[in-house]
Design a protein that fits this description.
123 residues, alpha+beta, Nuclear Transport Factor 2, Chain: A, two-stranded antiparallel sheet, 5 strands, 30% strand
Length: 123
C-alpha cells in the first residue's frame, strides 16, 4: 500500500499521472529544483537558486553555494535524509550526485541531477 500519493503532468503524455512513494518523492525534489526561488506566490521562500548558479563558472565559491543550496532543498523534505552529496562539472553544466535514504522504508538510493547551463533544464 502506498504511503505517499500524488501526480505529475511533466511527462507530457496522456498516460496515468499517478505517482506513489519513492517515485513521488523524487519528482517532488526535482520540481523543487525547477521552481526559481520567489516564483511561488503563496510561498516566496520556496524554490531554488541553482538555475542562477549554474550559469557561473564552477569556482570553489560557486561549488560551495551549490552544495549549500542542494543540501537545503533535500533537507526541506522530511521524507528523505541526505546521506551524501558530490557536485561536479559535466559536459553541459553541473551534476549533483545525491545519496538519499527514504525515511519510510530506510532504503537508500543515489540520484543524479543534471543542471544544464546551456538551456537551463534540470533532469
Amino acid at each position: 500500500m502506498a504511503m505517499y500519493r500524488g501526480f505529475s503532468t511533466l511527462e507530457g503524455t496522456f498516460a496515468p499521472t499517478k505517482l506513489t512513494n519513492t517515485n513521488l518523492i523524487k519528482r517532488d525534489i526535482l520540481n523543487h529544483f525547477r521552481i526559481r526561488q520567489g516564483e511561488k506566490l503563496s510561498n516566496p521562500g520556496f524554490g531554488s537558486s541553482v538555475q542562477d548558479l549554474i550559469m557561473e563558472p564552477l569556482t570553489v565559491e560557486i561549488k560551495n553555494l551549490l552544495v549549500e543550496e542542494i543540501t537545503r532543498i533535500i533537507k526541506s523534505d522530511p521524507r528523505v535524509l541526505l546521506a551524501g552529496l558530490i557536485v561536479s562539472e559535466y559536459s553541459n553544466g553541473i551534476q549533483a550526485e545525491v545519496n538519499l535514504t527514504y525515511v519510510q522504508n530506510n532504503q537508500s538510493e543515489t540520484l543524479l541531477f543534471n543542471f544544464n547551463n546551456q538551456d537551463g533544464t534540470i533532469s
